[in-house]
Amino acid sequence: MPDEQASSGRPLPALSQLNRPYWTSGAEGVWRLQQCPECERIIHPPALRCQFDHATPEWVPMSGRGTVESWTVNHHPFFPGIPTPYVIAFVNPVEDPRARVLTNLIDVAPEDVVVGMPVRVTFERGDDGTEGDTVHLPLFTPER
Ligand SMILES: [Zn+2]
């Protein structure tokens, strides 16, 4: 099971029926993304239909491993609870590198981030979201 980080001042998502599994499955220590049962593509952000064949996606567990496709370093203090600088990144899950997840990299110095860097999911527990669900933000750390 991945480590769980303490809550920070990171803003939390508004949960919906469509995105709830993405934001809450970290409670089980599992990173889940949608997969198309027809073409087997990993689909993210969550969608009602696969954009390629219109099949209904299913939530499936990922290994939690991925690679950094691209990143940027934010220096502006948009949110008081998040110390700057911090890294905003696109991560590709190893199960389907065509998929792209927008996230933060933590426990890494911005100057150490490189394209293709292996990363692993970790979850930061947030406060209770809508309808009593607890948000577990999927964040990524360098794979060691
Ligand atoms: Zn499909």
TrEMBL record:
SUPFAM superfamilies: Nucleic acid-binding proteins (SSF50249). Transmembrane segments: none annotated. Residues 59-124 form the ChsH2 C-terminal OB-fold domain. It comes from the Bacteria. Residues 23-50 form the ChsH2 rubredoxin-like zinc ribbon domain. Pfam families: OB_ChsH2_C, zf-ChsH2. This is Putative nucleic-acid-binding protein containing a Zn-ribbon. It comes from Mycolicibacterium rhodesiae (strain NBB3). The lineage of its organism: Bacteria, Bacillati, Actinomycetota, Actinomycetes, Mycobacteriales.
